[in-house]
Design brief:
- The protein contains eight helices and two strands.
- By secondary structure, it is mainly alpha-helical.
- Strands 1-2 form a two-stranded parallel sheet.
- Helix 5 (about 65-90) packs across helix 6 (about 105-115) and helix 5 runs antiparallel to helix 7 (about 120-130).
- The longest helix is centred in the middle third of the chain and has 24 residues, at about 65-90.
- It starts with a helix and ends with a helix.
- The model has no long low-confidence stretch (mean pLDDT about 85).
């Protein structure tokens, strides 16, 4: 990821998300990669997208990033299942030398869309609560490794 690619993502994806035209406040949670923390990125998010940024400290993604905690693995598994089904269907194509052609970006995007649509909304909402990203969330609802961190001082 580069700063330029992050800028393109903000224009093509983040700026076109539902509610952004009305400048509804939004929270964007991401790691501290240089493309995310670049001053131009921060400035643009705040000025043009009414977005608050929340950075996850290094080494804490598996505890604090909602998608990693709750639904990313199952969503990836569903996308992989779509790929396997596609391979079994015989739709794959080969070059003249017999090598498998690369899957089109449109096909991959369709697999991801289906996997996302099959992800229960309640699971996504609860993932923010489990990670403490939901204002007013009770510490009792945090997932167990995160709940134990203040007591043990150790990462799982």
């Amino acid at each position: 990821m580069t700063t330029a690619l992050m800028q393109t993502w903000m224009e093509k994806v983040w700026q076109t998300r539902p509610g952004s035209i009305f400048r509804n406040p939004a929270l964007l949670i991401y790691d501290r990669h240089s493309s995310h923390t670049h001053q131009d990125t921060e400035k643009k998010l705040q000025q043009h997208h009414a977005t608050m940024s929340h950075y996850i400290p290094g080494g804490m993604t598996s505890l604090l990033q909602p998608c990693d905690v709750s639904w990313n693995k199952s969503m990836k598994n569903r996308a992989r299942a779509s790929r396997e089904k596609w391979l079994e269907s015989g739709e794959e194509q080969f070059t003249k030398t017999g090598k498998r052609k690369r899957v089109s970006n449109d096909t991959i995007a369709a697999w991801v869309v289906v996997a996302w649509e099959e992800t229960p909304r309640e699971m996504v909402s609860l993932s923010f609560v489990k990670c403490g990203s939901n204002p007013g969330a009770s510490a009792e609802r945090l997932h167990s490794p995160l709940k134990a961190l203040p007591e043990t001082g150790e990462l799982p």
